[in-house]
Amino acid sequence: MKHAAIAMYCAFPCFGDWFTANILQKQPFEMYEYRLMWKRLRIFILLVILATVVQQSMHEDAALDWKRNFYVALYPVNADQSAEVGAYIKTLSADDFELVAEYFATQAQHYQLGLRRPVEIKLGAEVKRVPPPPPEKGNFLNVMLWSLQFRYFAWVNSPKLSIKPDIRLYLLYHDPKKYNSLTHSTALNKGRIGRVNLFADHRDDNTNLVVLAHELLHTVKATDKYDVATNLPIYPDGYAVPYLQPRYPQPLAELMGGRVPISEHEAKIPASLQRTMIGIKTAREIGWIK
Fold first, then answer.
1. Could you count the other beta carbons within 10 Å of the beta carbon of residue 55?
2. Alpha-carbon dihedral sign for residues 141, 143, 148, 153
3. Of 2, 3, 35, 287, which sees the most CB atoms within 10 A?
4. Which residues lie across from 77 on neighbouring strands?
């Protein structure tokens, strides 16, 4: 009971307020009448969560048959809460992200997917709150709590669009004058949500789109194909043309590999989406090929 209550307390502050006011303040002799109630409530909550997860998993797996396109909602966030970033966000339009939809349409043709535009991008309203960051210490409990917090955040911070989105990405814009580099972005397949760290400068728009497309594929089960310690693409799956002779330099980056291999120990960030491609293993992971 204690650990479950603590988990709920951390994930949902409103539950914590109720728990403190109604349970922790009770005297020991009054506690017994709550034990049975709490046990039944816990079982009910677990059953609801299990049913929701099963239903969502079935829906998500079915969607990867790609019988219809995915609608992706993009919600800008002023991560710095600065006037400079706010001014940049005001200049954004749906046209700034059209290249992403066109990129996936072109890549899908290579695998004869059968959808003219497998991804449609919708730019939503600015979200004023910043989604919770992933835990620095990635143990199971911390990741689980963060996942719950992020899903709750997305539930209450999804401005309505003309069509219900399948994927929601929160674009966290940062002032490039304050940061030389940004922390890794993160996206979840379960719930199909992501927090994407980007620079608030139109000179970085092309590389921003590469990061955005990379995280979008995570929401449909694509895995990273680079070494997290070195950021170097992993051979062969992280290479665009793994059997090229000579192997280096590679002409493009595999999108989930993240960089263009120049040599065995060097790789560079692709300048734009046009300098990337979706490799065979990634295509298989996201259901484009069997």
1. 10
2. positive
3. 287
4. 127, 172
User: Which of 19-28, 128-137, 154-163, 228-237 comes out lowest in average pLDDT?
Assistant: 19-28
DSSP 190: T
Q: What span, in angstroms and rounded, lies between the C-alpha atoms of 63 and 189?
A: 12
Distances (CA, A) of 46 to 13, 22, 38, 42, 52: 19, 21, 12, 6, 10
Q: Are strands 119-123 and 253-254 parallel, antiparallel or unpaired?
A: unpaired
For residue range 257-277, what is the model confidence (pLDDT) as tens digits?
999 999 999 999 999 999 999
Say if residue 6's pLDDT is above 50.
no
Whole-angstrom Cα distance, residue 265 to residue 156? Answer: 44
In the structure, what pLDDT confidence band is assigned to residue 173 with cuts at 50, 70 and 90?
very high
Q: What is the β-pairing status of strands 186-188 and 193-199? A: antiparallel
Least confident of 14-23, 78-87, 113-122: 14-23
CA distances from 80 to 44, 85, 130, 267 (A): 40, 7, 9, 30
Q: Tell me the backbone φ, ψ of residue 16, rounded to 5 degrees.
A: -60, -40
Handedness of CA 191, 192, 195, 200 (dihedral sign): negative
Strand partners, 19: none
